[in-house]
Amino acid sequence: MTRQPYPPASRDGLVEDLHGTPVPDPYRWLEDPGDPATKSWLAEEEQLFTAEMGALPGREGFKARIAELLRSGSVGAPVWRGERRFFMRRTPEQEHAVLYTVDPDGTEQALLDPMALDPTGLTTLDSWQPDKEGRLLAYQVSVGGDEESSLYLMDVALGHRIEGPIDRCRYSPVAWLPGGEAFYYVRRLPSTEVPEGEEQFHRRVYLHRVGTSTEDDVLIFGEHMEKTNYYGVAVSRDGRWLQISASRGTAPRNDLWVADLSASSLSSPELVVVQEDVDAQSALHFGRDGRLYVFTDRDAPRGRICVTDPATPQFEHWRDLIPQDPEAVLSDFAILDDLDRPVMLVGWTRHAISEISIHDLGTGERVGEVPTPGLGTIGGISERPEGGHEAWFGYTDNTTPPSIQRYDARTGETTLWAASPGAVEVPAVDTAQVVYRSADGSEVHMLVISKPGTEGPRPTILYGYGGFGISMTPGYSASILTWVESGGAYAIAQLRGGGEQGEEWHRAGMLANKQNVYDDLHAAAEHLIATGVTTPSQLAISGGSNGGLLVGAALTQRPELYAAVACSAPLLDMVRYELFGLGATWNVEYGSAEKPDEFAWLYAYSPYHRVREGVSYPATLFTVFQSDTRVHPLHAWKMCAALQHAQAGDRPILLRNETEVGHGARAVSKTVELAADQLTFLAHHTGLAS
Questions:
Q1: What pLDDT is attached to residue 689?
Q2: Which reaction does this enzyme catalyse, per its entry (predicted)?
Q3: Does the N-terminal peptide bond of residue 310 adopt cis geometry, omega within 30 degrees of 0?
Q4: Distances (CA, A) of 602 to 15, 261, 640, 670, 686
Q5: Which is nearest to 617 in space by CA: 651, 656, 567?
Q6: pLDDT per residue as tens digits for the range 417-463
Q7: Which positions are annotated as active-site residues?
Q8: Which of the four CATH numbers 3.40.190.170, 1.10.490.160, 2.130.10.120, 1.10.3470.10 does domain 171-287+310-318 have?
């Protein structure tokens, strides 16, 4: 076989001894993006990518259809403050969604348009939170995909910025106190106060008073605690109760405290432990009826809702209101109390399909269910903060752009509140939910989406994630619809490590159990082949972030099973992943190479270390983002060089290295370009004619 003319990449003889195991790392020099050798190699890889992709047919057709389907736009659920509401909407022509407000008199105005802030499209609106009266708005923006959010304050009526920027606010919650004069928030320590390399960590909870310098902010919480802790903070609607949560990185457990602000000062709240050093996740909601509602997976891996008195928030006082379901996973709830019989709406997912049940608020008795538009995904049930008889929720499925539905508990009816603003012609698809068995006999669910009437083996993309308790639920996707409309099949496997079956399902695919996730993917591929959906020469796999790790492991473990791979923003060097980006916050999911037993798990599947010379690997496209501060692109750089060196077959190994974008949100036009490249590459190497 003739190899591709790959850019030269020197192989160093570096070998480290880790816990008695020799670990080679021939491309460590690629970890330094500022090294002239790295820059030169990346420039040559870009030339190779451009030349290879330019020779492939069908890209313009894919690009046009993806762009057309994305002209559906999007719409978000209303956030109410009295008779004023806030919501997000993206029209067909817009690159980013815009934050709007509707005044009590019905007048709509745009509050925050990322393109107005920055016409280049590189600025993203990361989060926003109105105060309890709807007069002030806290919002966070970042530039160039780095997700380094700066916090600002706006006067809603005037539409003017009144404070900011406050830097180091990445992933910061904002908990307003009544009156809008102060809020609690989370901020990292300055880089000058932390060890080198730990600038992304060391968060603290502060109290900020509007109109004062951040130098006068009061430190509330977080000193002398784990450096990788994330903190949550919230204040009850009446301003009486403060809750603070702490989780070590992305661990599926948290510590939780509450303080009665009527009995202690805002700047020195007397925190009482709700749970500490408990292997469970819990969150609190202080009800308008004076009760404390506890959303928890403690002793209930599929979730339950308990009640207690706010004065006695500890576990021994909890009483089941909504017990764990034997099959469905609890997702969220809302309380509607302006009724003769107040109710709680409870959101569930059953094998990743959403439903909402209705329960008596006092007893928890199930009294009905909320009509939903179809078999799809419900995103968040919201109510008016002051109570009422209405609830709103987002809805989408494989062929339905996002919409907002309104449920009226007085009539029992669900009606369309707001549709995505663009009119698009969505192709018809058939969706089947299938069940297959993994290597150890575990049953795994998978959605298979196809063009109606299609029979026989066909080019297929198998997608998975399998980590962090994240569920793969149905949703509108321009890329999936474009692929299926072109005659391909698209399969989404609900692998272990996800949250589709609750926390036990998550833990069955993390730490020492991570290989289960890869086994589940291989078994999904074998099922698709055995049932005639596809063949190995027509099968591609695709994944991003943790899903990039998934497909990286898959292509090294079973290279003969897959024809092509799209690997985006991946973790691939699992021996050194903790040293870069946010890696240190994920050792609770993967394990740490510093510990001998955990190093053994990681090294056993680390894709970069599993590459072997003389193997015919699938055609592989790595897509990475230069401003990614979560997963450093060095993972893909090193893996790409290793595969290009080792490849015995004639299938190409390519790198798409994009600048000024990151791991998260991006302009629509950049989304279109990326998706078109991925589909074009996979179509060519699986035989799909676009």
A1: 83
A2: Hydrolysis of Pro-|-Xaa >> Ala-|-Xaa in oligopeptides
A3: no
A4: 17, 46, 19, 33, 31
A5: 651
A6: 999 999 999 999 999 999 999 999 999 999 999 999 999 999 999 99
A7: 545, 663
A8: 2.130.10.120
